[in-house]
Amino acid sequence: MSMNVSAGLRLLVVAASALLSGAQAQTVTVPTAQGPVVGSATPVQQFLGIPYAAPPTGPNRWKAPQPAPTWTAPRDARTAGPICPQVVIALFPVPGRTPGEILGSEDCLTLNVYAPQGATAASRLPVMVWIHGGSFVAGAGSSYDASVLAQKNGIVVVTLNYRLGPLGFLALPALDAEAQGGASGNYGLQDQQAALTWVKRNIGAFGGDPARVTVAGESAGGMSVCAQLASPQAAGLFQQAIIQSGLCTSPGNAVLQKDAATRNVKYAENLGCRSTDVACLRGADVSKLLTTRVPGLRPISNLVWSPTYGTPLLPRTLNDAFTQGAFNRVPVMAGTNHDEGRLFVPVASPDGSPVSLVKYWASAGLLVGAPRAQRVLLQYPFRRYGTPALAFATMFTDGVFSCPAIRVNSALSRYVPVYAYEFNDPQAVSVIKSPSDLPGLGSYHSSSLVYAFQTPLPGVADSGAFTPAQRSLSDAFSAAWAAFVKTGKPGVSGQAAWQLFDPAHANVQVFTPVSVRESTTFATDHKCAFWLALDVQ
């Protein structure tokens, strides 16, 4: 009996040792300037939740990112850090959470690194730094699993968090005096620059090349990329840029810092603080900060919490910076989705009911202002589209995404190489329910991301639902991004060379499930002559 117990114990010890050895073999330790980090080694090398700045809490709330903490013992980097404080909104669902729920922690300035198996400091692989979208009020870097993108293409991918909403973009006269350069706000953009600085200093140890960094982003992340292009303070932090669905010169987003600071005085007072009482503001509960509204702003045409201009970080509006050539001149790859606006139909009908004709008319005024609304409605008569919802979605696509992209591409292409594209899967995979008064979501806003990353995007789409044709589209689309990251030229295997954007032809590379081809009808398809002449930036 004792012999059997002893043998059994020996077997347990051997098995435990084998399991421990296997567990140790599945990790990898990398040095950083802050201290060593321990990440997962398979199926890719993955390091999660690495702080790139100090927690922006207490006296650091509404300050530029402060130096990151340091450590001596190896730090476990196998779990993503907290997301930044945000309110769950219907447009950007979070699985298992309900709209209106408050999530996150202010101690959120972390990033995640994905590198191919076996990458070492000698690898010197190209790097992509991903900035998430979410209207500057939602989202997280950890929502994007970059493991396939990194492993399949031999690149290092970094995803990051940055401060959102009022915590990331509050401009206020009382905060100006203590801010760098005397201008408050744009803390979220400063966070992004701090993360890019961390990448420049540390990414070599993970197998990346700090001299070959592409900054990329979608929606608010795409607008952030535009802002970093226009920011003198981001000079030298990246060598290429990818703009996906960026609202870079869309209606209502060129807000001057001084105007935002003045308007936010009432917001501070609504928090129960005097607008001059910074201590009171820094002590305010996060949930109250997130749920208190800025009064007097149009809900569609004005991004309440977003970058502001006329500051050392952003001296000019994006349109002025690009047209004047006053930006960080690097090659750019820029694209939109064919049906961006279909995701935003609930904006025209917040109660979830079908978009009525009256709601459609009202939404045009909110988008471009009452004086121009009639001209817009004449371009998009609802009878032509079948339902007011589809008319609204098409108007929103053209006016907010497609034609501003033409404006940006045309301006940038005078100074740097620009490669333009459109993603167009008429039945893009989605877990989002289409409104009943639409024929489907089509290539809705954010639909291209699961095709680029080739991993599920929670609350949006599942790459496991691809048809064979969609898988081929995903392979081509993702490979084009990766080729640009690697070489500065987004080639597609088996296709003719991708031509530089020419404003005279507005040529874009169109990605569909049946082909990848150049088109020169993009501007006509989206009524860009009308929108660019309307000038509602």
Lay out the secondary structure.
Layout (H helix, E strand, L loop, with lengths): L1 H24 L1 E4 L6 E4 L4 E7 L23 E2 L9 E2 L14 E2 L6 E6 L9 E7 L15 H7 L2 E5 L4 H5 L3 H4 L10 H16 L5 E11 L1 H11 L9 E5 L12 H14 L7 H5 L3 H6 L26 H6 L8 E6 L7 H4 L8 H12 L1 H10 L2 H4 L2 H25 L5 E6 L25 H5 L14 H20 L20 E4 L4 E4 L2 H4 L2 H7 L3
Parallel strand pairs: 2-4, 8-9, 8-10, 10-11, 11-12, 12-13, 13-14
Antiparallel strand pairs: 1-2, 3-7, 5-6, 7-9, 14-15
Helix pairs in contact: 12-13, 12-15, 15-19
Characterization of the model:
It is a single chain. This protein is α/β, with parallel strands linked by helices. Helix content is 35%, strand content 14%. It has 19 helices and 15 strands. It has helices at residues 2-25, 147-153, 165-169, 173-176, 187-202, 220-230, 257-270, 278-282, 286-291, 318-323, 345-348, 357-368, 370-379, 382-385, 388-412, 449-453, 468-487, 522-525, 528-534, and strands spanning 27-30, 37-40, 45-51, 75-76, 86-87, 102-103, 110-115, 125-131, 156-160, 208-218, 240-244, 332-337, 418-423, 508-511, 516-519. A ten-stranded mixed beta sheet has the order 3-7-9-8-10-11-12-13-14-15, with helices on both faces. Helix 6 (220-230) links the parallel strand 10 and strand 11 (240-244). Helix 12 (357-368) packs across helix 13, helix 12 runs parallel beside helix 15 and helix 15 (388-412) crosses helix 19. It starts with a helix and ends with a helix. The model is unreliable at 1-24 (pLDDT under 50).
